[in-house]
């Protein structure tokens, strides 16, 4: 007899997700070195364009290091999680978290990236965090590299464009696997690994202006090959050091629709989806897909591989696939259409059937079901939604309350579609909402773009008391977890 699935299984991992560079602060405390994220300034709204763009070049970094700029660097102070982690984790426990996704700041462990010995103070900090999570029976889901490369590796090697960085990453991975093997079972290698093709600096610590003879696509795809190899080697190490470890990859999923049913639009959408799924193809199937041969040839891209690279990729695929999902995008080959904004996206066109967020991101809950089905049909591996949420302006009432019904509505509709996908037969491990507590936005370094169930009293310039308070969505999500997604 066939088995009917009605909802999430009893072991479903509910929780929330953050990144070290967006919450920790303490950028120069206890031996931490500078990271690429520490050099990213706050971008006022009037200076922003559509899409994801962080333009940091070598001259700008030199100016920052020489203190010649007047910019503000919010990721250096974050929301002070480095000092408030006990208070914040207690709130996550009150929400009922089963899992908390966080990242380790590589430059807190190896300040320059290529140091011979790790920084004990940095190692101890994360051990303290994991012990605090264990106290509340919250599983850590740990990202090794979340939009941060030690600045020393950028200045000395130009980041992931240089193959030498593989050895420094695997040394770092081996160090943290050995240190935290009793605390961490779930690991991710690179956050949104495809971001490197949109922003080589963000995804790979690469300064494009230092390689003038190469086009940016050539640089990005060569660098991501190095990350693929490093990811596979880290997966191998994790399985050897922590026998019950589960290692996943992480993709910024850009579900792409054709604007019309014209065959040219359908082919273009298919091509865009393939370019996005290329990254999970390599991680999950252990080899480069054939369709990329044409793309590389037509764009003058030659990926240099070392002997044995293909075998490393083939022998060490990931155990599960994780991804972020905020919106879908639409493309067309004809006509004039209004552009829409989005995470990592520029040039997509508006979908007339969808609403948009305060930041112009198109809201598409049913697209999440499409994404889950496509992923599972393509790979047959367990899936984990590790980022999904609504960035919005929140208004604090005179009594301190925050009525974020719009956030509840967004999350409710997406969780409903998750449940539909599970009924379709998709093996879904868990869901970590981004971010459970207000944090510094990565792309614009602003605080006013708020995601959390927990409000943090801080503005875009770092002013405020840092007091934590609960929004209406706090009790709503608390009930969602308590009922395993049955009461939305």
From TrEMBL:
<dbReference type="Pfam" id="PF00232">
    <property type="entry name" value="Glyco_hydro_1"/>
</dbReference>
<dbReference type="GO" id="GO:0005829">
    <property type="term" value="C:cytosol"/>
</dbReference>
<comment type="similarity">
    <text>Belongs to the glycosyl hydrolase 1 family.</text>
</comment>
<dbReference type="InterPro" id="IPR033132">
    <property type="entry name" value="GH_1_N_CS"/>
</dbReference>
<dbReference type="GO" id="GO:0008422">
    <property type="term" value="F:beta-glucosidase activity"/>
</dbReference>
<feature type="active site" description="Nucleophile">
    <location>
        <position position="387"/>
    </location>
</feature>
<dbReference type="InterPro" id="IPR018120">
    <property type="entry name" value="Glyco_hydro_1_AS"/>
</dbReference>
<dbReference type="InterPro" id="IPR001360">
    <property type="entry name" value="Glyco_hydro_1"/>
</dbReference>
<protein>
    <submittedName>
        <fullName>6-phospho-beta-glucosidase</fullName>
    </submittedName>
</protein>
<dbReference type="GO" id="GO:0016052">
    <property type="term" value="P:carbohydrate catabolic process"/>
</dbReference>
<keyword id="KW-0326">Glycosidase</keyword>
<dbReference type="InterPro" id="IPR017853">
    <property type="entry name" value="GH"/>
</dbReference>
<keyword id="KW-0378">Hydrolase</keyword>
């Amino acid at each position: 007899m066939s088995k009917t699935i009605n909802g999430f299984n009893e072991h479903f991992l509910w929780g929330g997700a953050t990144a070290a560079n967006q919450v920790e602060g303490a950028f120069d405390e206890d031996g931490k070195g500078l990271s690429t994220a520490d050099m990213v300034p706050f971008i006022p709204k009037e200076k922003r364009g559509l899409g994801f763009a962080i333009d940091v070049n070598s001259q700008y970094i030199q100016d920052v290091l020489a203190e010649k700029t007047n910019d503000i660097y919010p990721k250096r102070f974050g929301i002070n999680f480095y000092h408030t982690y006990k208070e914040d984790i207690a709130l996550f426990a009150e929400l009922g978290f089963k899992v908390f996704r966080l990242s380790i700041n590589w430059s807190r462990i190896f300040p320059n990236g290529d140091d011979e010995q790790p920084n004990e103070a940095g190692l101890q900090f994360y051990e303290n965090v994991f012990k605090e999570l264990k106290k509340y029976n919250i599983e850590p889901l740990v990202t090794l590299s979340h939009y941060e490369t030690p600045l020393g590796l950028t200045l000395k090697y130009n980041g992931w464009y240089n193959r030498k960085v593989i050895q420094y990453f695997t040394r770092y991975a081996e160090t943290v696997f050995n240190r935290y093997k009793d605390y961490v079972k779930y690991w991710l290698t690179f956050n949104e690994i495809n971001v490197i093709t949109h922003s080589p600096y963000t995804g790979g610590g690469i300064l494009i202006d230092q390689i003038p003879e190469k086009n940016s696509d050539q640089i990005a795809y060569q660098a991501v090959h190095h990350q693929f190899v490093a990811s596979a080697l880290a997966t191998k190490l994790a399985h050897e050091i922590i026998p019950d470890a589960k290692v996943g990859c992480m993709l910024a999923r850009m579900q792409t629709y054709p604007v019309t049913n014209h065959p040219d639009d359908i082919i273009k959408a298919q091509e865009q989806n393939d370019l996005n799924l290329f990254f999970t193809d390599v991680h999950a199937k252990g080899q480069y897909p054939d369709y990329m041969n044409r793309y590389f040839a037509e764009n003058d891209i030659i990926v240099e591989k070392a002997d044995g690279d293909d075998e490393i990729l083939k022998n060490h695929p990931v155990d599960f696939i994780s991804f972020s999902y905020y919106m879908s995008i639409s493309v067309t080959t004809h006509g004039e259409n209004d552009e829409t904004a989005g995470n990592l996206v520029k040039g997509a066109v508006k979908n007339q059937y969808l609403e948009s967020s305060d930041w112009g991101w198109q809201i598409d809950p049913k697209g999440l079901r499409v994404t889950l089905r496509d992923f599972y049909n393509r790979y047959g591996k367990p899936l984990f939604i590790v980022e999904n949420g609504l960035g919005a302006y929140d208004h604090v009432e005179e009594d301190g309350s925050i009525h974020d019904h719009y956030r509840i509505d967004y999350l409710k509709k997406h969780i409903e579609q998750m449940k539909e996908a599970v009924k379709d037969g998709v093996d879904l491990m868990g869901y970590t909402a981004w971010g459970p507590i207000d944090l510094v936005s990565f792309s614009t370094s602003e605080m006013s773009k708020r995601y959390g169930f927990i409000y943090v009293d801080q503005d875009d310039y770092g002013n405020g008391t840092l007091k934590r308070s609960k929004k209406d969505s706090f009790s709503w999500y608390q009930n969602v977890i308590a009922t395993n997604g049955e009461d939305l």
